[in-house]
TrEMBL record:
Keyword Coiled coil: yes
Protein name: Transcription elongation factor GreA/GreB C-terminal domain-containing protein
GO biological process: DNA-templated transcription elongation; regulation of DNA-templated transcription elongation
Coiled-coil regions listed: 12-39
InterPro entries named in the record: GreA/GreB_C_sf, Tscrpt_elong_fac_GreA/B_C, Tscrpt_elong_fac_GreA/B_fam, Tscrpt_elong_fac_GreA/B_N_sf
Organism expressing this protein natively: Candidatus Taylorbacteria bacterium RIFCSPHIGHO2_02_FULL_43_32b
GO molecular function: DNA binding; RNA polymerase binding
Alphabetical list of Pfam families matching this protein: GreA_GreB (PF01272)
Lineage: superkingdom: Bacteria
Length: 158
């Protein structure tokens, strides 16, 4: 993962909090290995609790490694000072194939469609990134052609 991943301040904070929680969870799981091995032996075929614990440790370790890779590629995006183009940190009102919608463009992995937050790298956001008010753009979402008009752009977060 060599490309930069862009985050809002809150998104970056959440990644760091997730890493902290997972590191604690990993320590808790690792501290149980001696007890579980002592009770039933450390051979997988003899001790299903030990096998399950090892699987849990590996899963947490993989997730931690992935979050560290993401954090190493992370770039903080400051709130925009100019809102003449759609960027991370802007709220944009659009018409997509006749339907009006309002979206806040957020950082990598920060999408929450139910709250109208979409990450800059989602198909819809990718189509409108860098566009100005009044622009009409055509693109594809899930293989279907769409026409989007940017109606309004405003600053979203501070």
């Amino acid at each position: 993962m060599s490309d930069s991943l862009y985050f809002t301040r809150s998104g970056l904070t959440k990644i760091r909090e997730d890493i902290e929680k997972l590191e604690k969870r990993l320590q808790d799981l690792q501290s149980q290995t001696a007890i579980v091995a002592e009770v039933g032996g450390d051979q997988w075929h003899d001790n299903s609790a030990y096998e399950s614990l090892v699987i849990d440790i590996r899963g947490v370790d993989r997730r931690l490694a992935e979050l560290h890779r993401i954090l190493n590629a992370a770039k903080l995006v400051e709130p925009p000072t100019n809102v003449d183009k759609v960027t991370i940190g802007t709220k944009v009102k659009i018409i997509c194939d006749g339907e009006v919608a309002m979206w806040e463009i957020v950082g990598f992995g920060e999408s929450e469609p139910d709250l109208n937050f979409i990450a800059y790298n989602t198909p819809l956001a990718a189509i409108i990134m860098g566009r100005c008010k009044g622009e009409i753009v055509k693109g594809k979402i899930a293989g279907c052609p769409v026409t989007i008009e940017v109606l309004e752009i405003a600053r979203a977060f501070s």
